[in-house]
Amino acid sequence: MNKLFFLSFLYCNAYGFENLTNKFIQVDEHGNKTNAKLKRINCLRKCLRLTNCMYVAFEFRDCSFFSSFESFKFFSPNEIDLYRKVESKRPNLVYYWVVQNAKIKEIMNKNDLYTPSNMFYTSDRFGKSNSSFHLDNGYVILPPIDKLDIAFTILAWVKLHSYKDNQRLLDFGNGERSDNIIISLSGLQTSLYFYIYHGSTKYSINSNLILPLFNWHHLGFVVTGGSSYIYLNGSLLLHKNHNVSNIIRKINRTKSYIGKSNWASNPNVDSEFDDIKIYNGVLTQYEIKDEYLSNFL
Ligand SMILES: *[C@@H]1O[C@H](CO)[C@@H](O)[C@H](O)[C@H]1NC(C)=O
Ligand SMILES: *[C@@H]1O[C@H](CO)[C@@H](O)[C@H](O)[C@H]1NC(C)=O
Ligand SMILES: *[C@@H]1O[C@H](CO)[C@@H](O)[C@H](O)[C@H]1NC(C)=O
Ligand SMILES: *[C@@H]1O[C@H](CO)[C@@H](O)[C@H](O)[C@H]1NC(C)=O
Ligand SMILES: *[C@@H]1O[C@H](CO)[C@@H](O)[C@H](O)[C@H]1NC(C)=O
Ligand SMILES: *[C@@H]1O[C@H](CO)[C@@H](O)[C@H](O)[C@H]1NC(C)=O
User: Fold this and answer.
1) What's one Pfam family here (predicted)?
2) Ligand 3, closest atom to CA 130?
3) What is the pLDDT of residues 7-42, one digit of tens each?
4) Which ligand sits nearest to residue 33's alpha carbon?
C-alpha cells in the first residue's frame, strides 16, 4: 500500500479523479459503458458531491468513500483500486529551491539565490550529505518575487539551531511595512508567526509554537482571500479569518530574503532549510500531509 502513497500525481485541469495506479478518468466520460463501469462512474459522481469525500476505493463491484488516505489505510484491504479526487484548480508550483551536491537551484523559474552570507551545505532529513543548507546567523537574497498570486501556499523543512526573536524563514517585501510576507521561526519572546502586509496594514497569525531545536519540522503557510493558515508536520496548527475579503496584494517584491528581515534591527536566522516550495493556489491539508510524508523531490 505504501507504494501507492508515494506515487506522484499527474496534474490535470479537469474535474475528476486519479486512479492511484496512474490512470486518470473523468466522470463525464462518454461512450458505451459496461454495467461495471457505469457503477464505478456513479460512485465517483457521488463522491464529487460530498465535500469530505477525497478517496474512493473499489472492491469487485462495491465502492467505499474515505476522507483521508489514513482512513483508507485503516480499512486497507490488499488488492483494491483507489481513486483520489482532483480539484479543477490545481495549485501551481511557482518557486522550488532544490539542494543537491552542494548546489542550490530554483528549478521552476531559475530564481536562484545570490549573495549568500554564512551559508553552508549540510545533510538533509534523510542523512544525505550536502543536500540542505544551513544559514548560520546568515541569509541569502532572492531575485524579485513577482509571480505570487493572492492565494498561495509556502512549504519548507526547517531545523532550528537557536532561538532568536523575529528570525526569519523568509521576508518578501519592498522594505519595512511594505507588502511583506513574513514567516518568523521560534524565539523566546516571539513564537512562530506568519504576517502579511497589505501595503502597510498588517494581518498576523501568532502561534504558541516553540519549535524543538536540532530536529527537522515541516511547516506550511497558506493565504487565501481573507484567511491565513499555519500547518505543522501536515496538520493544521492555526487558522484565522481576518475579517476582510483580501489580505494581500499581487505585487513585485524586490526586497526578498531567506533568513533575513526587512527590519534592520532583527537578527539573521540560525537554521537549516530544505525543500522550500511556493505554490500559487491553496493546497488542501491532504496535499500538505502528502508533502510532509513524501520522500521524493
Ligand atoms: C488503474 O490503473 C491501472 C494501471 O494503469 C490499471 O491496470 C487499472 O485497470 C486501472 N483501474 C481502473 C479502474 O481504471
Ligand atoms: C453497447 O454495447 C453493447 C454490448 O457491447 C451493445 O449490445 C449495445 O448495442 C451498445 N449500445 C449502444 C448504444 O451502442
Ligand atoms: C560536500 O560538498 C563539498 C563542496 O563541494 C565537498 O568538498 C565535500 O566533499 C562534499 N561532501 C560530501 C560528503 O559529499
Ligand atoms: C515533525 O515531524 C518530525 C518527523 O518527520 C519529528 O521529528 C518532529 O519532532 C515533528 N515536530 C513536531 C513539533 O512535532
Ligand atoms: C467583522 O465583520 C463583521 C461583519 O461585517 C462585523 O460585524 C464585525 O464587527 C467585524 N469584526 C471586527 C473585529 O472587525
Ligand atoms: C520586478 O522588479 C524587477 C526589478 O525592478 C524587474 O526586473 C522585474 O521585471 C519586475 N517584475 C515584473 C513582473 O514586473
Assistant:
1) Laminin_G_3
2) 1
3) 223 222 234 777 664 444 444 444 555 667 777 878
4) 2
Task: Return the half-sphere exposure (C-beta side, CA atoms, 13 A cut-off) of residue 134.
Answer: 16
Which residue out of 29, 79, 81, 83 has the highest number of ligand 1 atoms within 8 Å of its CB and is therefore the one to mutate?
81
- Count of beta carbons in the 10 Å neighbourhood of residue 205: 19
Report the separation in Å between the CA atom of 173 and the middle of ligand 6, taken as the mean of its atom positions. 13
CATH topology of domain 92-293: Jelly Rolls (2.60.120)
What would the pLDDT profile of 71-106 be if each residue is shown by its tens digit?
787 776 666 788 888 765 567 889 999 898 999 988
- Listed in sequence order, the residues at least 6 apart from 166 whose beta carbon sits closer than 8 Å to its beta carbon are 184, 187, 190, 261, 263, 266, 267
- Could you tell me if the CB of 250 is within 6 A of ligand 6? no
Between the CA of 36 and the centroid of ligand 1 the distance, in Å, is 14
What's residue 182's pLDDT? 98
| Residue 203, phi-psi category: left (phi > 0), alpha (psi -120 to 50), beta (remainder) | beta
pLDDT of residue 29: 45
Domain locations in the chain? 2-86, 92-293
Average pLDDT in the 160-186 region?
Answer: 98
Task: Pick the closest to residue 44 from 269, 33, 74, 155 (CA basis).
Answer: 33
Between the CA of 33 and the centroid of ligand 2 the distance, in Å, is: 8
